[in-house]
Amino acid sequence: MTVDALTDVAGVRVGHATRIGAGWLTGTTVVLAPEGGAVAAVDVRGGGPGTKETDALDPRNLVQKVDAIVLTGGSAYGLDSVSGVMAWLEEQQRGVRVGTDPAHVVPVVPAACVFDLGRGGDFSARPDASTGRAAVEAAAESGSGARVPQGCVGAGAGAAVGALKGGVGSASAVLESGITVAALVVANAAGSAMDPETGMLYGELFQGRLNRPEARVHAAALRRLTDIAATNGRPPLNTTLAVVATDADLSKAQAQKLAGTAHDGIARAVRPVHLLNDGDTVFALATGARPLDAENLLALNEILAAGADVVTRAIVRAVRAAEPVDGPGGVWPSYEELYGTA
Question: Which among 122, 178, 238, 266 has the fewest CB atoms less than 10 Å away?
Fold first, then answer.
């Protein structure tokens, strides 16, 4: 049975550590690869990224597999959370072997951050090593194929999409070949997920869902968003992060292509996208459980197309699962608070 989330890729687990209240509105999310790691790649298209260990994922470089990927709040400060994940992996003797002793490993943990500083009211409240450790432990303790909590959790706790509250979303697809492709997204964009003319979510328009909100509901929502914008001001930095995973047997170069085309899924759901004050970053993971059709030179295409599709769906879910925030750091209504579930 599938759960329509990243964990539908066998062996992949997700854990969140969330801090909300008393000045906090942030957290960390860890995607834990199966034992032995997974082939990984990255594609960065935002103009203001905050990342760690992304150079190791270049197909020309040595490291072939990673054991975890970290998505975190706290902007560049939040990258401290990676230290907690590395410490946990070292204890499990997971990482790149650098000696004959099995305990001599160096975990390679690529990471990216979103800007959420001060959104809970305290600019200094941000993830650290203990947050990262809590998130990776939560991932390890989750069962195989576990449901993935979505909305204002983990790295999505303090996320915002334009004037709306953002968060974490996930989705998956099983292709005709039997290969699974799935995504987990932290939606935190400078652009908007909503068409200002109709109130419809861009991602749902792409999916063919055409339930247009009533004009009076949309007008009321626009009035509220205008009032809030005057109070909040425009956030200086934002970022949408994604991890796209598959059980296909991909090379690092093929995984990098998957990460690149998955950015199309962000562009379908958020407008504008990839701005100078975004840090939009997509990671790709391939566990290698299912071979590609060696006789079909274009076998990768269906995976590339599915990667973009599940990213779009995951962003829609993140926005719809988000809960409103009204606190010392600002006001961000949720989409469903303004428009309902229709």
Answer: 178
Q: What is the pLDDT of residues 32-43, one digit of tens each?
A: 999 999 999 999
Of 329, 316, 115, 331, which is closest to residue 225 (Cα–Cα)?
A: 331
Band (pLDDT 50/70/90 cuts) for residue 134 is very high
CA angle, residues 70, 115, 334, in degrees to nearest 5: 100
| Integer angstrom CA distances of residue 99 from 85, 107, 226 | 21, 13, 59
Q: Identify the helix (H) or strand (E) that includes residue 174.
A: strand 167-174
The token pair that represents 277 in the structure block: 């004050």
Confidence of residue 112 (pLDDT cuts 50, 70, 90): very high
Dihedral (CA of 132, 135, 140, 145) sign: negative
Gap between the Cα atoms of 29 and 134, Å rounded: 9
What CA–CA distances, in Å, run from 184 to 14, 56, 200, 308?
9, 21, 22, 12
Structure tokens belonging to residue 149: 């909590």
Residue 335 · residue 319 · CB < 8 Å: yes
Strands 111-113 and 68-72: parallel
- Which residue has better confidence, 86 or 232? 86
Q: What are phi and psi of 71, to 5 degrees?
A: -115, 130
Q: Which of 86, 57, 91 is nearest to 286 (CA)?
A: 57
Pull the structure tokens for residue 59: 């197909």
The pLDDT tens digits of the residues spanning 6-15 come to 999 999 999 9
Cβ neighbors of 148 (< 8 A, separation 6 or more) are 3, 5, 6, 7, 14, 168, 170, 184
Instruction: Please give the structure tokens belonging to residue 34.
Output: 């199966």
Half-sphere exposure of 15 (CA within 13 A, CB side): 22
Q: Say what the pTM is.
A: 0.95
